[in-house]
Structure formats: C-alpha cells, structure tokens
Task: structure prediction
Amino acid sequence: MTNANLYLTFAQQGFSHAGDRIFLQTPGREPLLYGQLDGLTAQLQHRLIELGVKKGDRVMVQVAKSYEALILYLACLRAGAIYIPLNTAYTAAEVDYFMGDATPQVVVCDPRGFEALKPVADKLKVPHLLTLSEKGEGSLQDHVAELPTEADVVAVTTDDLAAILYTSGTTGRSKGAMLSHENLRSNAQVLHDYWQWQDGEDVLLHALPIFHVHGLFVALHCALLGTSTVHFLPKYEVNEIMRLIPESTVMMGVPTFYTRLLDEENFDQSLVNNMRLFISGSAPMLAETHYQFTERTGLSILERYGMTEAGMITSNPYDGDRVPGTVGFALPGVQVRVADDEGNVLSAGETGVLEVIGPNVFKGYWQMPEKTAAEFRKDGWFITGDLSTMDKEGRVSIVGRAKDLIISGGYNIYPKEIEGEIDLIPGVKESAVIGVPHKDFGEGVTAVVVADGSADISESVIVSALDGKLARFKQPKRVYIVDELPRNTMGKVQKAQLRDQYQDSYAS
Result:
C-alpha cells in the first residue's frame, strides 16, 4: 500500500529539498528554515507518542499562532493523528462541547486559558491537557529538544482523516467536518497550480489565524508545496503589512485586510511593485472595494470561494478577467451546479443552491450520520447551502445564504445560537439576529430584540450579558430594541425585511 500521508507530499515535493531556505519568519524570532522541519516534527511526533497518541486519535488545539503551533499540526499529520484546531476566541463553555464530542487524547491550550479549561478536561476525563504559548513555550514542549529527530511517517490511506474542523450549527450544535489526507492534498495541489505558484521564489504575506481552512490549509499548504518564505505575522496590523508588502509577492486575506489598506494614504502602486497576487476570501467583498483597489494599485484582487467542508471550490482566474461580485469558476477536478431544493439542475442565470462534487469534498460530519446523509444528494453531490447563480460560461456568483448564515470577518456565524443566548436574558421576549453589510467585516452581526417589560433592556445590557457566553466575533455589533418582529401569515419572522430595514446600520 502506498502511504497517502499528506506530510510526505510536503516533504517529498517541497521542504526536504529546500535546505537553508527560510520557511517562517516572525518579528522578534529567529527564522525557521525548511531544513529544520523534518527534525522538529519528528521530535514532536515522539512527544505525541509519549502521550499515548495513536493513529486516528484526536489532538485538539486552541493556541496562539506560532512556529510551534504549525509544527504541531505537521507532527499530527506524520503521526496519523487527527488534528482539531479551535478558534482562540471560543470560551471554556464552548470548548466543553468540542471536547465532549471529539473525545481527544490530547488537548493543547494557551497557558492563559489553562485554569478555565482544567475543570472541563477533568470532567470529560481528557487524558492530557497541555499548554503552548505564542512564544512556543509550555508543557507540550517539555524535553522535546531531547527527543530523536527521526521518526517513521505513519502509513495512512487516502480516506484516513487528517483533520476535523468544527463549523457552527443552525441549532447551536456545531458539526465536525471530517477532512481526509486526500481532501487536503488534492485541494492544495490544484491551488498551487491554478494560482501559478512560483516555487522557491514566492514570498507569502500571512496575517491570518491558523485555526481555519483559509489560514492553515489554503495559505500554508500552498507555501509548503512551493517552498515559499512566509512572513508569519501574529495578527493583522496595517502598518506591519505596509512595511512587508514590498518584500512579498503573494498575500491572502479577507475583505477587511483590503479595506484597511485602502484607508492608508501611502498605499499606492509604488508599494506593490513586487506583488503578483492578492487573494481574498472567507467573506464577500464589495464591488466598490475591488474597483478602488485596482484604481489605487493597478492590480486586481482575486476572489475565490470555499467552505470548511470542501476547501476551495471556485476561483476567479489567474489569467483572465476577475469579475467583481463573482467567485469565478469551478477549480480543475471540481464540479459545481446550481440546483433547486429537489436537486434539479437550474438553467444559467437562475438562482438556486450551489452543489459540489470532487476529491476536495469532506467525508461527512463527525458522529452525525443523519446530518451527513441530509447534506448529500444520492448521487454524491454536496449541498453547500449557499444561494448562487451561474452564467453560461460557468462563472459563479454567491447571492445569499440559506439557513441565515452570517459571515463576519471571515467567520461563519449562525443566528440561532446567538438568539438562544439573547432570549435567556431577563427582560427579553424574543430576538432575531441578522447580518447586514459592514465595510470592514463583510457583514455585521446585528440583533433585533423585543422586550417583555419585566426588566430594563438596552443595547449595553444585551452586550454585557453575552460577554463570556459567546466568542467575541459572534456578539452583536449593534442591538435594536423594537416593539415586535415582522412576521408572515404563517408566523415566521421575516428576516429579509429586517435586513432591508437595518442595511445602513454600519454605513457611516
């Protein structure tokens, strides 16, 4: 049997031959070289083995961005373990669910979160709760430097799981999307080729978090395959981005990154002379942002579309027109179609739900066979839930989202979870949470609340009550108190009407 471990793909096609080429460089730290990766990941693999991690075991990680965090991901791959990254903004109450659902052998957290997570880990009998800081320090690293720098890469099949990524659920219960080694490899190789990666020459400007598809898989997998140097920034700071753009050739970001660059007077064509590609995703970009960017720089942002369950699905072309308001064409090897609720394929220009099939599509939801079955057609097509149109040439436009999904700052947010928390606040009769246009975040989470008269309710009261209950990115940016919610004759809240009513909430 051929070993289908994704780690070998990176090692054989990329970094094992790169030697002294810089892989990661972060302000305040010595650069990490490609030639160091095999030894460092082997040492951490031995550490995982010490902790009882076997092929198929889950390793859950909620840590700050660092060299060591990425090395841990690669070590999990070569150990045949299933890597589960969590948003660093999740509260202990939210992590409680993930731990209980995934039953990890090891959980690695930021030292600052250890005390809050320790009771949760003890309650759920998690064998090991370890720490890792943004400086690469913590109990995970105990005596790692003393461990062997060689280790066998565990043999896996193409269908063996490499990662589980949790998505928000419409009922508040998150779903663990199971991604195989082949899911990740096929997508990485297609993107590397489609975006014409310049092996050994590209320099990637990376200011994304590494707990989701965009920052971890799309950006860093391309870099690893292309033996690229990566400016590995802890977070997005516009001044630091401006400083590093002249030294870079590729940048991946969310719309917020680009709107903030456009706010800078000194951001102009002279600054981007070395850049060949700006990519945006994770949230829809306003056409106005596209036009302003091209006018300022002479370059066109490449917008693409993907999701946790399938990685990247479509992309505007590298060569050819990048049309604002569209997400381009299906990637090579990937097929898409627009269908109605029954799965009937619609004609060009008609609005329906986008469906996808291909080697990038996930293996289903962890321990949710019924949910998995409901999201796939009998012929194997995955139902994305995104409302779309497709023109005669096959160019896709995302026009809305089924099930009221909000995408804010690149994060997927389902209103039902937020509404559930708001409705528990004393004085609240009911609520409706919507996403409306926001210049920086794509959509701003907005709550419309009806009071029951039993207690004083205001925007500040609602926001304060949600603090610690929900991750900050889920918390409403604006709260409106109203007498009643608009409903149709069947009693269903008319969220489209609310979105129209409050669409200018963040216009100023």
